[in-house]
Amino acid sequence: MISYHPDSRFLTDFATANLPLSEAVCVSAHLEFCSKCRAHVQQLTDIGGHMLSRLKPEAVSDDSFESLMARVSSSETLAAAGEPKPEAMLAASESAAVTDESARATSLTFLPRSVRRLSSGSLEKLRWVQLGKALRVAPLQVDDASRDTAIYDIRAGGRMPEHEHRGEEITVLLQGSFSDADGSYTRGDFVVRHAGEAHQPTATQDMDCICVVCLERPVRPRGLLYRMLEPLVNYRLQKLSRPAAC
Amino acid sequence: MSSSDENSGSNLRKTTQTWGVQTIPDPWEGAIRKVAQSQDRAEFKRLFDHYAPLIKAFLSKGISSYADRSLAEEMTQEVMIKVWNKAASFNSSKASVNTWIFTIARNTRIDFIRRNGRADRTIDIEDIWHEADSPEPVVELQQRRVETMIRNAMSTLPEEQALVLEKAFMESKSHNEIAEELNLPLGTVKSRIRLALSKLQILIDR
């Protein structure tokens, strides 16, 4: 059962689309597991709809409708020429959503839509960096310079190096579970760690724990060995996050 | 369970829905449906005349600080094109037309901001702010109740609470940006928004 949810700040900033993209990826991932938060976002969005309807209208230019319809007509000519019709595309995405629902119930690793897109459909297509025995990390390319986003894969029973956070960290569990001194977390949980908090997550024995993680700034590992490795690790991650052509 | 039990169960649910919630019919739902079913241009013109100036007002608020305001006109067209193209996906049990159009305008707005930034996009806005799931009946019922609450209670909010909602939803500002602009601690902005939400019957635990 999901016990950790985004707070009202995350949900409101998400509903108004004012979250940094990487954090929005995390919230949207949680929403696919949590109907309660989905309902909240829906309700928050209604505030937007209501306020929109009460705005003082701002006149559009006189030819706005005509030029709009001209654009619509030309895109329909394109459609007739073999481009997929918008309705058909929508129908396809609707049926994809239905598959999602059943996939979530049956499959071990359900990938939220945003993560699926960022990993081209499969986590194995990502470029993984092995960090010690228990952890491998694959950076995700989100256009968001303020944060690092990545998929973490902690081996079943594996323990991550103890680390302290220099900025906010959001973790959403996609598979398995882990625990640290503060609690235990399972699939769908949305876990926030603030700057200055240190922890050492350990994955449970039954299966690998896969999370999407969004980090405000790189965390500082506590042990001397890891601190020495850190520049190297960061270098490797940065190198990987650059496009292949570079 | 016998079939008669099932019937009485569904009757009970129906009664609760009509009895517990006063829903006002959505005046624009029919127009969207006609656009979806028969590409009805006259109905679309009606929608355009009503919504385009509202959408433009919303988008002008959002972009005044960072870009040319004439962009609002272009973005409004973009939103209305999406209304035309996506009319078939509108689901009246999920959202009112107001809310649906707000989400399209909101997504179009951030899409424009991103296009101004970088060209190499790895993810579409719709991959994050999508509507993949249908609400369960109970949620839907709550949803109607909240819609009614929002309509009725919005005008009764204290000014300072109405202001933060206005900044978040219409001026598209994050909690942090609102705190900075009003020179308030982040915690104060958060609690004002939470108070406002609870008056609108949106009860978020944290």
Structural class of chain B: mainly alpha
User: What is the name of the CATH superfamily of the domain at 118-241 in chain A?
Assistant: Jelly Rolls
Largest sheet of chain A: 6 strands, antiparallel
Instruction: Supply the CATH architecture of the largest domain in chain B.
Output: Orthogonal Bundle
Please report the number of helical segments of chain B: 10
Spatial order of strands in the largest sheet of chain A: 1-2-3-11-5-8
Radius of gyration of chain B: 20 Å
Helix content of chain B: 55-70%
CATH homologous superfamily caption of the largest domain in chain B: RNA polymerase sigma factor, region 2, helix turn helix motif
The number of helical runs of chain A is: 7
Tell me the distance between the termini of chain B: 39 Å
Distance between the termini of chain A: 44 Å
Overall spatial form of chain A: elongated
What's the architecture of the domain at 118-241 in chain A, going by CATH? Sandwich
Walkthrough of the structure:
Chain A is α+β, with helices and mostly antiparallel strands and 246 residues long. Helix content of chain A is 41%, strand content 20%. Chain A has a domain of 124 residues: Jelly Rolls (Sandwich). In chain A, the strands form three sheets. Chain A has a six-stranded antiparallel beta sheet. In chain A, strand 6 and strand 7 form a beta hairpin. In chain A, helix 1 crosses helix 3 and helix 2 packs across helix 3. The longest helix of chain A has 21 residues. Helices cover 69% and strands 0% of the residues of chain B. The two termini of chain B are 39 Å apart. Chain B is built from ten helices and no strands. Chain B folds into two domains: 96 residues, Orthogonal Bundle (Rna Polymerase Sigma Factor, Chain: A), CATH 1.10.1740; 70 residues, Orthogonal Bundle (Arc Repressor Mutant, subunit A). Chain B is globular and about 50 Å long. By secondary structure, chain B is mainly alpha-helical. The N terminus of chain B is likely disordered. At the A-B interface, helix 1, helix 2, helix 3, helix 4 and helix 5 of A face helix 3, helix 4, helix 5, helix 7 and helix 8 of B.
